[in-house]
Amino acid sequence: MGKVSLVFFKEDCIGCHACEVACKQEHELDVGPRFIKVLERAPLYIPIYCHHCAKPPCKDACPVEAISRNEQGIVLIDEDLCIGCKACAEACPFGAMQFDDDKEVAVKCDLCIERLKNNEQPACSKACPTRCIHWGDMKKISKEIEGSLLQG
Amino acid sequence: MGEVKKIRTVCRSCHGGCGVIAHVKDGKVIKVEGDPESPISHGTMCSKGLAITQLAYHPDRVLYPMKKSDNGWERISWDEALDTLAEKFKQVTKENGAESIVVGQGTGRDYESHLYRFANLLGTPNVLTAGHMCYVSRVGATLITCGNLPVCDYEGEPKCIVMWACNPQWTNPDEYKGEGFWRAYIKGSKLIVIDPRKGFLAKKADLWLQLRPGTDAALAMGFFNVIVEEDLYDREFVDNYVNGWDAFVRRVREYPLEQVEEITWVKQDLIRKAARMYATTKPACINWGVPTEQTLNCTDCTRILTGLMAATGNLDAPGGNVFFVPPPTRTVSEFARHKDLPPEQRAKRLGGDQYKLASRVALITPKVAWDAILTGKPYPLKAGLLCGTNPVTTRANAKEAYDALKKLEFLAVIDFFLTPTAELADIFLPAGTWLEQNHVADNWKRHGYVLARQKAVEIGECWQDHKVFLELGKRMGQDWWDTVEDALDYILEPSGLTWEEFKGKGYLKGDQVYYKYREKGFSTPTGKVELHSTILEKWGYDPLPKYTEMPESPISRPDLLDRYPYILNAGLRTPTFFHSANRMIPWLREIRPDPIVEIHPETAKKHGIKEGQWVYIESPRGRVKQRAKLNDGIDPRVIVAEHGWWFPEIKDPGHGWDISNINILTDNSHESMDPVMGATNLRVLLCNILPCEDEQEGTRWERFL
Q1: Alpha-carbon gap: A38 to the closest alpha carbon of chain B (Å)
Q2: A15 touches chain B (CB under 8 A)
Q3: What are the tens digits of pLDDT across the range B346-382?
Q4: What is the pLDDT of residue A76?
């Protein structure tokens, strides 16, 4: 497998928020940080999420190098290093970076790294009733989205 | 620290059916996930089901029985609680007759078999359910028309799907979940969407018909007009299997497309296109939703839609609307002992003479219960037992519902939380969530499956609803079983399985046979699909379906338009809440902190309303506040508002039940209801909107965090 990423095929997002709650449950998140947030602009639904960019602007913006991209391509935050300056949140073009008010650190999607280790799909993608959340290497994702386009 | 145990079970955060794997560690459910083996949901889940742990372990959840005393709520034992109920019910039965006890449920999430058994053996014909305007009304109307409820056969690969007033991917369409629809749709089916509001499916649709709310029956007649005029019906089926076709066609001719366009606001060309697409693409199915039922055209609209399925040859045909063969289990009807309610008690059913179809399906419309309590006519109701229902937020004319329940001499409520309804009770009984029960799930549905809902944990002193009815029934001297599981063995007996064996299997599916009518006809008096209904005729109603204009609409009441210029479509569904449930669940409330009312941008501008601003919505019956959301996918003449709102974070006993509750505005007068079923009209009334001056910006909820 090459570098992994996460892509929502927006065209098929129904705005049901199952991905949001699945993510909250998986990461034991309380009210506040939302690693995925779906905006409702019926009939359009716009998922806000981390794209695990190849050149992450959040990583470039971090003054203390708390953000890294691992060998799989997953962009991660080291909470111990984070100083809570929110420069990453400013830099993220997608609005995906979240903040934990209690710990005063930036937090984000880790693509369910623990689940991937066990060959399980990310929690959001598993719950999605239209299966519009694609993950894996770009070849796999492109193929799946091409399939969706043909169906739609 | 213990190991994680995985329990295969079935969700019930709506009417349920989706397969779940519950992860249990040290006696606590730590996580739930979709079950990939589920024939219903194939591993997917919705936000409501995924948030079940936050409901089950919620700090405000009541975990033991309580009674109301002078010092407020007081903890008591199950013995004391059940003895109190049994004693009260015996006393009322002796002094006033069992009919003076009303038993009620909300959407009856899988316990109506037990609730009805309790009511029937008690001898009360007065059972309140949501069925007067939701699903059971559909079951009743199809029962008298074609003998059974026709359900979309998504596994049979329809080539055309008509989504008629339904959003199954967000809400609960009873038989199938949105998952089944989606799998059929992406195989390349055509899609026709009938919806006053442009949602996801309207965007995807080949044809979207944006009708005036509440005019579905007229639109269906428009479809029929095209099908008859252009000879697009299945002549062989009509000749052999329809009762009253010629008379029905004469009725259809009373609905020329010009007139249908005027009534429905849908352009003639579009009606014609949609009717042709539905009638000529085979197979085709119609997936109906509750808005077709929540008007005074409830029964007629269901009957016309059934007629469309029949006339196009799609009834009980693969990929059409079919009668699924259930697995071999005891039916809800047999379990509930409907036949054992004495005829003299049945004759006392409130509103039974007026709403004969409701009586036929063994329920009463709430209005007749409120009347009996508030006026004592035809006789007073003295005591009530309500299970999983919050009528002060979810029934039409909420103020009347509230006054009636408040006045009721004795009330017991089974629920998870102290809802505004539960706060009016004398006894509170704590219910178990779906993680805390053993049950043969979906046995009442008509999709051909039964599923094993297995207990994952026990929490506090909560009991599954079934156990409450069983233990209370035994105290009343009724015929029940020793345990909940013994009753499940009885339900499963015809299948040859015990509950223990069934658990291992996970589910049973009936052996589907299509075109059953070719052998047996239809289960109606004439053996045919009765577009001319011999039953309605015998009961003294119009035997042919028609469209009736709503009593409070721009057409019926132009005199009200100065003050109330807009049509209010009440009950905009949300994906995170199930009617009045889940407002206290942090993960869900965070997504949707406030009650939303959608307004067209032009309309908002006219009233100086900005996105996110709190507004008053007013009808002739009252005024509530919701938060404005601008949506250009609705007609500027229509306002669409959410229902079921109360505020668990407000701690006084009313919990803000009347602040944003859209049913403060709805009507339940007899003239506004379906004359056969007593369905309340929740989709069409007149309203006004104006900005709220006294409400600060921002969400209410955040002030309580």
Answers
A1: 9
A2: yes
A3: 999 999 999 999 999 999 999 999 999 999 999 999 9
A4: 97
User: Cα B382 to the chain's mean position, in Å?
Assistant: 27
Q: B252 with B219: CB under 8 angstroms?
A: no
Q: Which residue of A has its CA nearest to B702?
A: A31
Q: Which residues of A are less than 8 Å from B32 in CB distance?
A: 25
What separation, in Å, do the N-terminal and C-terminal C-alpha atoms of chain A show?
28
CA distance A65 to chain B (A): 32
pLDDT (0 to 100) of residue B704: 54
Distance CA B647, CA B660 (A): 9
Say which of A42, A129, A131 has its CB closest to residue B169: A129
CB-CB neighbors (< 8 A) of A17 in chain B: 47, 575-576, 591
A31 with B705: Cβ contact below 8 A = yes
B42 touches chain A (CB under 8 A): no
Average confidence (pLDDT) over A97-118: 96
Question: What letter does residue A63 receive in the DSSP assignment?
Answer: T
Strands (E), B394-491: 410-415, 427-430, 439-441, 449-453
| Mean pLDDT for the stretch of residues A102-128 | 96
Please, where are the H alpha helices in B532-623?
534-539, 586-591, 601-606
Cα→Cα distances A47→A38, A53, A94, Å: 4, 16, 10
Amino acid at B661: N
In the predicted model, is pLDDT for residue B475 greater than 70? yes
Chain B interface includes A24 (CB < 8 A): yes
Q: How many CB atoms lie within 10 A of CB B504?
A: 9
CA pair distance B141, B361, nearest whole angstrom? 10
Count of CB atoms within 10 A of residue A54's CB?
Answer: 11
User: Which residue type does B332 have?
Assistant: V
For residue B158, whether the previous peptide bond is cis, meaning omega lies within 30 degrees of 0, is no
Kindly determine whether residue A129 and residue B179, on different chains, have CB atoms separated by under 8 Å.
yes
Distance between CA atoms of A39 and A48, rounded to whole angstroms? 7
Q: Closest residue of A to B589, CA-based?
A: A31
Q: What string of DSSP letters covers A3-30?
A: --EEEE-GGG-----HHHHHHHHHTT--
Task: Say if B200 is an interface residue toward chain A (CB within 8 Å).
Answer: yes
User: For the whole model, what pTM was predicted?
Assistant: 0.97
Q: How large is the C-alpha radius of gyration of chain B? A: 24
Predicted confidence (pLDDT) at residue B172 exceeds the cutoff of 80: no
Q: What is the pLDDT of residues B55-102, one digit of tens each?
A: 999 999 999 999 999 999 999 999 999 999 999 999 999 999 999 999
Choose the closest CB to A129 out of B51, B182, B586.
Answer: B182
Indicate whether B621 pLDDT > 90: yes
Q: Judge whether residue B15 has pLDDT over 60.
A: yes
Burial pattern B326-336, b for ≥16 Cβ within 10 A else e, equals: bbebbebeebb
pLDDT at B699 over 90: no
Which of B:345-364 have CB within 8 Å of A? none
Single-letter amino acid, residue B230: E
Work out the minimum CA distance from B683 to partner chain A, whole angstroms.
20
* Interchain pair A130, B182: CB under 8 A: yes
Q: How far apart are the first and last CA of chain B?
A: 32
